[in-house]
TrEMBL record:
Keywords of the record: Oxidoreductase
Protein name, entry field: D-glycerate dehydrogenase
Residue ranges of domain D-isomer specific 2-hydroxyacid dehydrogenase NAD-binding in the record: 111-290
GO molecular function term, any single one: hydroxypyruvate reductase [NAD(P)H] activity
Record family assignment: Belongs to the D-isomer specific 2-hydroxyacid dehydrogenase family.
Ranges of residues in domain D-isomer specific 2-hydroxyacid dehydrogenase catalytic: 6-318
Amino acid sequence: MDTKRIFVTRKLPEETLHLLRKTYTVEMWEEEETPCPRELLLEKASQASGLITMLSDKIDQELIKQSPHLQVVANLAVGHDNIDVEYAKGKNITVCNTPDVLTETTADLGFSLLMATARRIVEADTYVREDKWQNWGPFLMAGSDIHDKTLGIIGMGRIGSAVARRAKGFNMEILYHNRSQNEDLEQELGATFISDLKTLAERSDFVMCVVPLTPDTEGLLNSEFFSHMKSDGIFVNISRGTVVDEPALVEALESGQIKAAGLDVFASEPIRADHPLVKLDNVVLLPHIGSGSIETRERMAKLTAKNVACVLAGEEAITPL
């Protein structure tokens, strides 16, 4: 067996690590939901040639400097804002993510969140469970239509494009804001490129945020943006929490400036029961489960293992950044 060591920062199914265990020494933090403690991560990384990490693991200069054997960091996510990618590359460390395999699953979740928020699904479920349903009325738990409405997508990458295809099935008009135009998608779906966020906010019945977190997108959606949305507009975020000015969103929801929001991500995760968003009935809250299907998470785990195996064998990673 090769003497190289690999550390996995969260419990993964054993079958996804079989390829690595045949050749290398693999250690794994045996908790599914609790992040690996920082001190333990630093200790294990200092001995490791490969790391399989989660978004909650901070792979920064401190860790990289004291990890002389490290050759590859495989993040079990599309996002990689938890990793100092440029510094890692400067140390000849390959950084990988898991694009493509989670695109359709995340788009499913995004559109499900849009639908649940528009039709007040969670609120109506609670209404029944709390034994409040005594009679039927024509406007009982009445929500908003989705079909024939306008969806504004912020970020027309793989996931945004997949969301747009789902929206087309509901005969929605599709607007999008992106760093560049996607002319192929415009021809395929009749989507319209909107160069400024103000116009997108004003014209959209639903706004869905699917942008990666970068210095340019942090705090991108603020009080000014929400002030331009329709009063019956619905906002959905499946990207990163800090893309949104969260206090501004809370204010927009509390004041009725916008109608509702569906959120899978938050500025600080996990949020607690005393968070202002939790107290609002016009918000659907999910625990960052965008790619959370069994099939997709298993594919993601297998891809991270393959990336690590490739790099440690002296081959090119499958999905390097």
